[in-house]
TrEMBL record:
Name listed for the protein in its UniProt record: HipA-like C-terminal domain-containing protein
Organism domain of life: Bacteria
Gene3D superfamilies, sorted: 1.10.1070.20
Amino acid sequence: MATIIHEKQDLTYLKWSHIRSSSGTAGTFLKATSTLGGKKTYYKLSNFDPVKGVIGHECINEIIVDRLLTLLGIDHLEYELINANIEIEGRIFSTYLCASKDFKKAGESKIALDDFYRTNSNPGESHYDFCKRMGWQKYIDTMIVIDFLILNRDRHGANIEILRNARSHTIEPAPYFDHGVSLLYSCMSDEEAASFDLLADNPCNNFIGSFSCYDNLNLIGDTKPLKYKLTESDKKFIFEGLDKVLSKTFISKIWEMIYERYKVYENL
C-alpha cells in the first residue's frame, strides 16, 4: 500500500525545476530528483504558485489512485506521500509531496507513446488501433477504464511510456503513472468539492480516443478489463491515513466519485 510519512522531513536540499502544466491549469508543477545509494528517486509537488505556494492536491490524488490500482491488481508506479519542508527560490514551504522510484530495469530505455507512434504507425492508423496491433489492447483498455473512474484530465501521449529492453528484446508499455490531474484536483475548497458533478463528462486530454472519457469506453466494447469487484468496504483501504491531509468533505466526495463511476462501468 502507498505509504504516508506524516512526520516532517527536511528536503530543503532538493533542487526544483519548473515543468509547465500541460493541462492548462494555472501555476506550475515542480519536479526534483535525488540519488542515494545508487537508487534514483523522483519527487514532485502539487500545483505551485510563486506567490501563494503549493495550492493544489495532485500529490494526494497520486496516493489515492495508487491504492485504487493496488486493489484492482493493476501494475503501476508506486508513490510515497511525504510531509516535508522544501526550499524554492530562497523561500521555505511546508507541504506534502510525492516520491517514487525509477521503474526502468537494467537494459531498459523509455520513449513516450506519441513519439513511438509517430515513427512506427501505419498511414491513417488510429492511436487505439496502433496499440492493438502492437499487442497492447488489454493495457490500453484497462487504462481507458481507470481514466474514466478517476476522470483523468491529462493522459496525453507523454503520460504513456513504452519501455524497450535491449537485453530481452521486448517492447511493452510502462506501469501506469501520473494520475495527479484527476478526481477533484480543480476544487480548492470544501464548497467546490461538495458541488462538483461526479458523473460529468468533462473534457480530458486523452492521447487514446477522444476528449470524452465516456466516449472512450465505447472503444473497449463489451470487454471488462477489471477483474476485481470494487465494494463500499474498499473506502477504508484507499483513504487510510489521509484524514490528516484531506477534509471529510473531500474524502467523502472522492470516494463517491470513484464508486459511482465504477457502477457506470459495471453496468455497461
